[in-house]
Amino acid sequence: MSSHPFRVADALAVLGAGFAERTVAINVHGDRIGYRQWGERGPVVVLLHGISSSAASWLPCAQVLSHNMRVLAWDAPGYGNSTPLADVAPRAADYAGRLQAWLAALDVTPDAIVGHSLGALMASAYVAAAPVAMQPKCLLLLNPAQGYGQPGQEEKSRSVQAQRLATLDQLGIDGMAESRHAHLLRPNATDEERAWVRWNMKRLNDGGYRQAVAMLSGDDIGAYLSKRPASTPAQIACGDGDGITPPQGCEALAKTFDLPFALVPSAGHASYIDAPDAVAGWIEHAVLSQSQNA
């Protein structure tokens, strides 16, 4: 699909056929995770979406990856058909706990965990706490959201939370999708690419989004990356035109933790939609490099 101009109608047809939604129970309480899978063999790549998105949004990138890998993309707790977390103001560690339970339910050990935007916080929290047997061979942070929970950021944290919730209260999910979808993509994105982001945003759940806003406002990716095992390598990449998590901030995060950093050309915040082939290539290179070093 990535070799032709992107069309939402084509994406929805492929979504139902090759990347269909599934659900699995993850504990005795009946909590469930909704997810999508593509590919049956090869390294296992786990994809974690951001605050305004869903598992389905990964479709163009997942299709490329599925040629050589088994791709698993979840709907985070409170998104899609995934059971929300109990806490109204959860932290990334709470999402990471569900992530570990989901992978255990599927009897899967990930070769790579790719976290986009807010998903990068969840992915970082996962590697900070997961047992050795459940650690990925590599952690890949794409356009990472760093959170506003650092000491001294209290005013910014309150401002971000208030602004996002005010937008939701004023516009609702549909209105927010209409007004915000274009900001996630490069300036010259096609109408069809914008429509794809809008379609995914319109599937957000009010309660799940509010919990994610609380996590973004109150957590700190650095607190988790500082606990990353030395045996779990990590990399960071960012779209060169990202106006939401700008490249300068992503590169500074990489320098703080001495991690490789790459720019995704001609891509905004939703870089895996703007440039699915480039992002898939970055993921494949990281996974194959770790396999060769093993």
Any overview of this molecule?
The protein has 294 residues and is of the alpha/beta class. It has a single domain, classed as Alpha/Beta hydrolase fold, catalytic domain (Rossmann fold), CATH 3.40.50. The protein has helices spanning 8-18, 59-65, 92-105, 118-129, 154-180, 191-201, 206-218, 221-225, 247-256, 271-274, 276-293, and strands spanning 21-25, 32-38, 44-48, 70-74, 112-116, 138-142, 234-239, 261-264. Strands 1-2-4-3-5-6-7-8 form an eight-stranded mixed beta sheet, sandwiched between helices. Helix 9 links the parallel strand 7 and strand 8. The two termini are 33 Å apart.
CATH level-3 fold name = Rossmann fold
Q: In DSSP terms, counting alpha (H) and pi (I) runs of 4 or more, how many helices?
A: 11
**What would the principal axes of the Cα set say about the shape?**
globular
**Name given to the CATH architecture:** 3-Layer(aba) Sandwich
What string, H for helix and E for strand, traces the elements in order?
HEEEHEHEHEHHHHEHEHH
The proportion of residues forming helix, as a percent range, comes to 40-55%
User: What portion of residues belong to β-strands?
Assistant: 5-15%
How would you state the average pLDDT, rounded?
A: 96
Say which CATH homologous superfamily is assigned: Alpha/Beta hydrolase fold, catalytic domain
- The tally of strands reads 8
Distance from N terminus to C terminus (CA atoms, Å) equals: 33 Å
Strand order of the largest sheet: 1-2-4-3-5-6-7-8
Highest-level CATH class: Alpha Beta
- Rg of Cα set: 17 Å
Spans of at least 5 consecutive residues with low confidence: none
Q: Structurally, how many domains make up the residues? A: 1
Q: Structural class, from helix and strand content? A: alpha/beta
Q: How many strands, what sense, and barrel or not for the largest sheet?
A: 8 strands, mixed
